Amino acid sequence: MTTIPFPVVDEIARHCLQEEEPETVHIEVHLPGPIDPPRLRKAFTEALRRHPRVLMREALGPWYRRRYEWELTAEPEVEVVRFTDPGVDAPRDARRRSLDQAPPLSASPPVRLEVVPPVTASTPAPHPTALILTVNHTALDGPACLRILATAAELYGGKDNTPTAPPTRPRQPSPTTPDTPSTWSRPARVAAGTPGTSPGNGLLVTELPLPHRPKDAPYTVNDQLMVTTARTLAHWNREHGAPPRPLRITMPVDDRPRDHTMPMGNGTRLVEVPFSPDELTTDDTPALLHRTATRTRALKALHRPQLGHGATLLTAPVAPVAWRAALTRTLRRAAAPWTSTTLLSNIGRIPYPLDFGAEAGRAHAVWFSAPARMPRGLTVTTASTAGRLHLALRWSRTLLGPDDGDRLRDLFAHHLRTTEAGP
């Protein structure tokens, strides 16, 4: 059987697994029409075969082994697709399961797809068909699993789901060293709200208008979202009496192609975008957007390992993996005060039509959410579909509660509007 050593990202995630806060990626796709169960099971299973790197499980091994390894399997070992009973609360319950129940690494593949049938307009709270994909983040990330869904859509509906070309950007000068706040000081933490009594993650998904920006603006929608996130958290912390501190926002960068050649796995690299307290209290939004654009361009242009040189050193197979796991967990706890304030993952415009054919139709909403384990305790994930921005706020229930999620959503919507330029 073919085996693959865990890459750096997979190994670090495997070292730090916690049952209380599972490391899952949640992807939610809404379709206007119904899905045929046997046909979808067949299409999704075939999509997994066409991306064989996904059909894997963690290989067993002695405690003194130097690496974790993935074993590739020819077929799924478990039933991957599940259909739930329709109901007004069915999407909410499926989201909760996606956050609370990570697919185990011991069975191939570490992915589950739950289908929530539509509720008709005669009910008090109608909803469309929802496809809710749960991914164990130790093995795969959101963009890779979206590629699998696009393949499944093409097989199910017979429609071309070739990714669209990325938007053209105005030519920018080569990135220069930006005027960047120091990254050595401890960043702000998200102030505690009204947490619940149980561990795990909470989630809020919502739809907002895409922010307007002038044609050929030197900043992108991603820069607008970065400024919005920073101002939202600064506002939230002021409301909760936290002293002003610099913010650092982790931003995943993904350079993989989106077609059938896209490498599966955890393929993003992480960079950190800093903001000083003074920047977040200024009313000069255009200047802040320009500075943020300069920083993000410079960070994206850097060539560095996915999690930095320290993670590469920690995962070097020079000692038993069990020893390295203990060291990694110790260092993670020690470094907690220096962990970034939050993570903003902007998937951007969904590149695939996600067209499931005549009856099911084409996706009109797609949400992602990333794990929100402490010490960050909050992640912000955005994607745009059908000209709308789909925002997911995910938080640790030991830090925030549902009412806090509502307040953060309102603050985000307000500060997103402040990044818009007039027509």
Number of strands: 14
Mean pLDDT rating: 90
Amount of helix: 25-40%
In CATH, the homologous superfamily goes by the name Nonribosomal peptide synthetase, condensation domain
Oligomer: single chain
What portion of residues belong to β-strands? 15-25%
- What structural class do the secondary elements suggest? alpha+beta
Task: Kindly provide the name of the CATH class.
Answer: Alpha Beta
One letter per element, helices H and strands E, the order comes to EHEHEEEHEEHEHEEHHHEHEEEH
> In this structure, how is the largest beta sheet organized?
6 strands, mixed
Shape call = globular
The CATH architecture assignment turns out to be 2-Layer Sandwich
Task: Using the coordinates shown, work out and report the CATH topology.
Answer: Chloramphenicol Acetyltransferase
Structure, described:
This protein has 423 residues and is an alpha+beta fold. The chain has one domain (7-163, 178-418): Nonribosomal peptide synthetase, condensation domain (Chloramphenicol Acetyltransferase). Helix content is 30%, strand content 21%. It is built from ten helices and 14 strands. It has helices at 8-15, 37-50, 90-100, 142-157, 221-239, 285-301, 309-314, 321-334, 357-360, 402-418; strands spanning 3-5, 24-31, 56-58, 69-72, 81-83, 111-116, 129-136, 201-209, 247-253, 269-275, 342-349, 365-369, 378-385, 388-396. It starts with a strand and ends in a 5-residue tail after the last helix. The model has no long low-confidence stretch (mean pLDDT 90).
